[in-house]
Amino acid sequence: MSENDQVSSQLPAKLYIVATPIGNFSDITYRAIETLQQVDLVAAEDTRHSGKLLSHYQIKKPLFPLHDHNERERGKVLIDKIKAGLSVALISDAGTPLISDPGYHLVNECREAGVDIVPIPGPSAVITALSAAGLPTDRFSFEGFLPAKEKGKQDKLKALIEETRTMIFYESPRRIQDTIKQVIAILGAERKLVIARELTKTFESFYSLPAEEMLVFLNQDSNHCRGEFVLMVAGAQKDEDSIPQVALNTLALLKEQLPLKKAAALTAQIHDRQKNELYKWGLENL
Ligand code: SAM
């Protein structure tokens, strides 16, 4: 602890993981406000951004920068401060810290060091989006951001072809159209998608369409691609009679080089399916 650190002793010396709004400043809990008012120090990803957030709630606290690039090294300093008696809140730019945001290493190291961690729950875009999407919520898979590079993105989507749970991705406005193109190519044009845009903000919108129609819709108007996005993808249908998407992808690929009959026969061997069903599907769709 440095000379400048003052222990206010209003809260026990612990790490408090505090969720903040994802757009609408009214979406903050009483407990989050009380915690932020009472801690000695607030660790934040972007101290300028968080300074503005805190001043909106008339809270003035010393801020400690903690982001992806300094988390491991600066986290140790924070742990020393907590051990010396300071209470510390961790916040991120929006939503719940650690959810596609910094904090994992700090929390992990606090656990190792025997420092208590208290979660103060609140908004997160993933749960907010899912709660109003109309897709199955009993089981879901949060996939965070897809890799930015084409190959990495394709590999990740290929690994999800058979996933039956609702899948949830964070996506940037610059990449949303390309991502949907890859979804069409890998998961199929008919796969149901829901986009939650600008959650809790003035232009909050939900778009629910099959993948191919979603791409057309996004291309229609640049306003449809503005702001922040959560992309939700319906899980694969596990219908005994339906041909798995992975087999359809193989068939489409082979059909580029071979007559449909041959492509269907090879696909049938590779995926242990009936060649007639593949041939029929190819006639109708390729
Ligand atoms: N920690 C945050 C949380 O709990 O949701 C997520 C932070 S991550 C760096 C930012 C991404 O979350 C955005 O690119 C977007 O995909 C999603 N997101 C955050 N706020 C959003 C909002 N208001 N509407 C839609 N998506 C949002």
What order do the SSEs take from the amino end to the carboxyl end, as H and E? EHEHEHEHEHEHEHEEHEHHH
> What is the C-level CATH assignment of the largest domain?
Alpha Beta
Number of domains: 3
* Tally of DSSP β-strands: 10
**Main sheet, how many strands, which sense, barrel?**
5 strands, parallel
Strand order of the largest sheet: 3-2-4-1-5
Q: Assign the CATH superfamily of the largest domain.
A: Tetrapyrrole methylase, N-terminal domain
Distance between the termini: 68 Å
Task: Look at the helices and sheets and give the structural class.
Answer: alpha/beta
Choose one word for the global shape.
elongated
Mean pLDDT: 94
Beta content comes to 15-25%
Query: Which cofactors or ions or other ligands sit in this model?
Result: S-adenosylmethionine
Question: What characteristics describe this protein?
Answer:
286 residues, alpha/beta, Cobalt-precorrin-4 Transmethylase, domain 1, Methyltransferase, Cobalt-precorrin-4 Transmethylase, Domain 2, 3 domains, 11 helices, 40% helix, elongated, binds S-adenosylmethionine
